[in-house]
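Weekly modeling sync, notes
Attendees: AB, CL, MP (scribe)

Item 1: holo prediction request
CL wants a bound-state model with S-adenosylmethionine before deciding which constructs to order. AB pointed out that an apo prediction alone won't tell us much about the pocket. Agreed to run with the ligand included and paste results into these notes for async review.

Input as submitted:
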Amino acid sequence: MTVETAPSPTTPEFDLTYSIDDFLAGTTRDSVWIYEAIENAMVDLATEVPGGLVLDVACGTGKVAMRIAEGGCAAVGAEASQEMIGLGRYIQPESGAVMVRSIAESLPFPDSTFDRVICQGSLDHFVDGHAFMREAARVTKPDGRVVIALANFESLSCRLGRNVDRLKWRLGRPRPPWRRYWETPEDHNVKGDLPYVRSLGGEVLELDRCFGLSMFWLMFGWGSLLDRLPEGLSRSVWTRLNAYANRRPWHSDMIISVWRRTDAPN
Ligand SMILES: C[S@@+](CC[C@H](N)C(=O)[O-])C[C@H]1O[C@@H](n2cnc3c(N)ncnc32)[C@H](O)[C@@H]1O
């Protein structure tokens, strides 16, 4: 007898076909500088152990893993989309980073393998972010670290943008048909914010460090204002606000969290 079960509308499926066309990176200074800052922070944290072994989960085209490999560590990129892996290999065929097609929630590596496991801008795409964190803890060495970069949809920028838009809509201005930057994108399975980040450790990981990056990313007029200012002044304003964000991850645009295993040696 065949029993047919209807697929649950609430259970998301693994996204195995992510495309470079889904990756929307802005070209204004606020976007260019935040991406640069995230990548630099991730590379610095990933290479804290000289000559260490680093895993970049959901690495996309593997550009961060490739930078890590250039910096003297051994880097492995794990990624669900064949298109992203293929594109990365096409762009940098000589890279020493190894790319493996796999799912974050079930990593094909032995226990206690890596000095650092990193994940940049991807955890909110996963079907089960907590399952990934358990896997990350499992494949990290006992004295290693797990490093997560996640966009904050409760940043000051998102909260201001949300309130201003809602006021405009209440006053009768038409709601645009496109997604506003403060709305969680369709290909995200959770809304990233500080309480969600804090929940990620579960029983296997505890928070070692947490800091923020960038303020006012994508907020109305901010990118074009930074673009219109002379570059030195613009950079100086952005850098000062970034220093503010470092100490206030709840206000910042991006949250970087560093985790250690709860069974780590002292
Ligand atoms: C926004 S992109 C970020 C890529 C890269 N980390 C970066 O910062 O450029 C999200 C990536 O997560 C990957 N992804 C989504 N769900 C995944 C899963 N369950 N396991 C592994 N990779 C996944 C997608 O294929 C995509 O390449």
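Recorded for review: Residues 115 and 144 are 5 Å apart (CA to CA).
Action items: CL to compare against the apo run; MP to circulate these notes.
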